[in-house]
Design brief:
DNA replication; 360 residues; HSP40/DNAj peptide-binding domain; single chain; DnaJ_domain_CS; Helix Hairpins; alpha+beta; 9 helices; chaperone; 3 domains
Amino acid sequence: MSSKRDYYELLGVQKSASKEEIKKAFHKLAHKFHPDKKEGDADKFKEVSEAYSVLSDDKRRSEYDSYGKVFGGGSSAGPGAGGFGGFNMDDFTSAFNGSASGFDVGDIFSDLFSGGATRTRRGRDVSIDLEISFRDSVFGTKRTVLLAKTSLCDTCQGSGAAKDTEMLTCTHCNGTGKIHETTNSFFGAVTMVQSCRHCRGAGKIPKEKCRTCRGEGVYKKQDEIEIAIPAGIDGGEMIRLSGMGEAVSGGAAGDLYVKVHIAPDARFKKDGPNILTELSVKLSDALLGVSYKIETLDGPENIDIPAGVTHGEMLQLKGKGVPTARGKRGDLYVKIKINLPQKLSRSARALVEKLREEGI
């Protein structure tokens, strides 16, 4: 462990932290850095485990707070020490008995002591951006994209073998497909089981390799991928296509994540299941009422403007909005904008003057 790291700093807690806060902090970091997890870090895992073994014990914590190290077990466990002085596995595991809900120390260490469990290889996830029209975001659509990514070889279907070639027993794993590797941890020597890199866990290797992928089982190529855009999707939402990411020989393909962007529309905006638009009407039509033809996403529709409609008033066309999961649709709301003339003719002015006299 680094000679300058502070135990409290390692766990990300204040010196005044309670036992429960220390326990929760360790719980989170132990899961994060567990060496058998995809993003694990064995060194950091050892560091936070050492810090917890000291700060979870009242006596050791008191010694550490006073002297910067603890005494016991024959060695120092302070920031300047390299071992785990005073570390007791019984104390370590008992700290979780009846502790944070849903937490089991086995969650962290089960993979280390599983006695043969192997981790499945997985290809990388791929993320792309896709822009669609406003109309397509309302009704949904299907789009096809051309994506360059690592995919399974079409010739050998991922086996890496030439057609009808003989399959030989892998000499590196003796046909088991697994390799036992021993690493040192604060528990001592720990044996972990991993897939054989040479045969990719199959236990067999081809006598003659596939010429298309040169025996790799995968190669980079352009794939056409069809993406189904659901109705009512909002800008910024992600669509996940399981197994459509990059392939890896002897393992599972990653996923494809599509971030959807919606091109703005000059006429329409979404408001949940409803659609908003605006309609400009003449002053005389607003006063007397009239029927207007407006554009909707379903085509032209007639809307009745009631006499005396006010500026900013909202009129409703039912069932012309966004389709919902229940098979229904929201509504189209039309905001009225009354156009006032910039100039009046003499006759028009005379009429307006007469309206003023009548108190209108």
